[in-house]
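// run 5 | inverse folding | seed 20
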């Protein structure tokens, strides 16, 4: 999609100050219809896809956008967003990660936004340092087209001498432009080997 940019009179400074913003929008396939400046506010009307309009207004340095459908009613859908579900499983099925077991956290990530997402990364961050449990903390999910689903699987391995503990992790999903989903927490238990 070819981008068009028409700047209203007196907005040459705005274009120079916000070149990176406009470049990012063009790379995301956004057609810029009008951009104007009133005082220190940016006014923009952007077209994404067929009849879907995004408009926004903010102070210099940022642009907050809201998706609006062709009837100009707020559709409540963000341009960049994912919905995700997760499930933790472990081999014995007793809901405890025990000595030498490897459990897995499976994320099912669906692009629920209006644009394709590129270079998506899923991360898990422990709220406290886990004792005797190793895990991968980041997975490159890659590109997720609109409406498509991708999976990320994290593995947790308990050491032979793992102790009983409650472990809580924060799930973050982001792309190079920032966070694209609300962070969520998940918790699982480890159990020390019985009988020494």
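// decoded
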């Amino acid at each position: 999609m070819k981008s068009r940019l028409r700047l209203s009179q007196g907005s040459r400074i705005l274009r120079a100050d916000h070149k990176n913003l406009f470049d990012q929008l063009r790379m995301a396939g956004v057609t810029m219809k009008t951009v104007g400046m009133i005082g220190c506010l940016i006014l923009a009307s952007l077209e994404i896809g067929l009849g879907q309009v995004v408009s926004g207004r903010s102070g210099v340095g940022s642009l907050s956008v809201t998706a609006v459908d062709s009837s100009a009613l707020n559709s409540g859908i963000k341009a960049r967003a994912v919905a995700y579900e997760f499930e933790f499983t472990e081999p014995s099925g007793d809901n405890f990660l025990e000595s030498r077991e490897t459990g897995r956290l499976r994320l099912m990530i669906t692009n629920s936004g209006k644009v394709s997402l590129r270079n998506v990364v899923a991360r898990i961050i422990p709220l406290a340092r886990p004792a005797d449990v190793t895990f991968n903390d980041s997975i490159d999910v890659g590109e997720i087209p609109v409406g498509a689903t991708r999976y990320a699987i994290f593995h947790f391995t308990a050491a032979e001498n793992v102790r009983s503990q409650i472990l809580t992790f924060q799930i973050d999903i982001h792309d190079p432009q920032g966070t694209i989903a609300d962070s969520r927490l998940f918790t699982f238990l480890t159990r020390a080997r019985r009988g020494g």
